[in-house]
Design goal:
5 domains; mainly beta; DUF11 domain-containing protein; 668 residues; Immunoglobulin-like; 42% strand; six-stranded mixed sheet
Length: 668
Amino acid sequence: MMKNIYLDVNFKANDKTSFFSKSTPGLLLLLFMFIFSTHSLSAQAVNEQSNTHTSSNCQNPTRIEGMVFIENTGKSLKGIPVLLVPQDGVSGGVQMQVTNAEGKYYFMNMAAGKYLLQIGDANLNHSKALYAVESNMFIAEIKSCDHQTKNFGYSNTSQSVIGNFVWYDFNGNGIQDEWFDANEDGKITQNIPDQNGYVDFENWEWIDLNGDGSYEGTENIGELNKAGLGNQKSANIFITGPNGYSREVEIDYLGHYIDQPTESGEYQVRLEMDAHLSAASEKMGFSGKVKIIPNFGKRILAMEEEDGPIIDCGPTKESLFAIQLSARELVRFDIDFGIRCQERPPVKEILANDIDLGEFDRSYGGLLGNILSNVLFDGNTANPKEVDFEFTDLDDVIGLLLNEKGEISLIPEMNEARKYRLTYVLREAGNPDNQKVAFVTFSLKNDQSDLSVILTSNKVELWEGDVFEYQIEISNDGALKATGVAITNYLPAGVTYLSSSVLENKSNIELSNPSFAGNKITWKAVGFPTDAKLILAVKVKSNPLNGTNVRTTTNLVEVSAAETDVNPHNNVAELVNVIHPFFIPNVITPNGDNKNDRFEIRGIETFVSNKIKIFNRFGDNVFERTAYANNWDATGQAEGTYYYELVSVDNQGGIHEFKGWVQVVKEK
């Protein structure tokens, strides 16, 4: 007869040791044996493979247990899946148990070694906004006859949350509409935990954790096996954000990931494939149990044959998301990534050697060479039917001719004399991912030309804000037609480009539209006949000055051709202009402090004459002067917005008209 045997099951939320204690030494094992023998059907089924590893010399069975609970209240969390996953070659399969009414779980009689202990907390995250205080994963080193306890606390958070799911996207549509059909019956099968909460993980399809009879909706997230892809060996999710925020996040065993940044702002979430995640994807695909399209399993098995196709695994939609976290939107649980594996045929080697075709005259229009002459495909001379070729960088070559045999030639006299290096890509026909990059080089020689350029602004007197024109005159004074002509105007920083036009082109030179790169404007002409002249106009506006100092600007124009120029000194022209300061204020404060009391237009004295009119907001003329002396102080006028018209004449008779508004602010 046993007396005074007690089993203390009182549990404290922060207890990091076992929640079992015995008051009568030596009898707890007997009690355990009694308890487990009454439930031998389920416990034995779950641990059948692992029991063979249990030492007969153990006084207590090998065991790991714990509790899932809300940390700040100690309230237990029932119906939460817990996984025990062997690591590093430890024998045995994945075990799954659902926590009981007290939030407890246990696994026992497993082989010694390393295990991943994971909480399937997707439902806690999504439907209850509860998150692991530390982590939902724990690596346990289990020794024979050892008894460990690992508790998992959860709490709400005021931090932002980024996360969701990585799964095998069988149909590649980017929508989570797959499930793992473990028994391959084409139907979603409900798995009912045994009396101890155990579920056969290999056959898991759907566990009705909350008893509502449904696996759909936010409240049921985590119940259905959605073919999640996990990787605990390396990080695959990379998150960056404000102030240098950077995190590398692992995907848990069930395919979920989570991060909790502390700041609002813009974040980028990126999925990067690696060997571990690709292996998990291939394993899921090879199973043939991810269902959307029938008979996927039969097709994928063919991929494993020797010398068969190669498997490529990758995202089925964008692998980079830009999101915004704010006080109104702290949680972004919609950043999911679908992965699919597809087959591609074995790669045949392409050996593409660079080729130098030699030097040619610019007037030469014959065959330059064949780009396939130095190419081997699968060990043999490349056949044009076996490979496709495409030039990706022509090095500004104009008039390149390429036929289906790989032969290239040029239209004569269209390119400047220099060495060219062209880039082309060779691709296997029908398998464009199998490709190689190679280079073709050749040189062109040219004749001599004599181009010159003159730059002027017709000695115009300039004030800030003025619109004026530069005139560019290009001539060919040589005996030969110039080709590949480029006219480049480097505008000074003190002006803004408005437009350009052709003022004279009697020789009908074919001139391109101007191209722009920063302050550089470029025109190109295929040919420029001898004795021809071309005049271009560039309209600009002088930019505002800082302060009252004048601005000195230098404009530069250069002309070049494919031919060598006999007199390169006249291929460049410079023009210096002085821009005078001019300033009209938009606010005055006539309060008698001698600071901004009057409507003072700086630089007005540089004009020969001027006339100003000032109107109130009703259009009434309240002030008008010829030779305005900067003396209007809004005497007799109410504060508010006034409008002015100023017409000034410079010393060359040029008329300058300014219109705008000025705000009058008076002390009340």
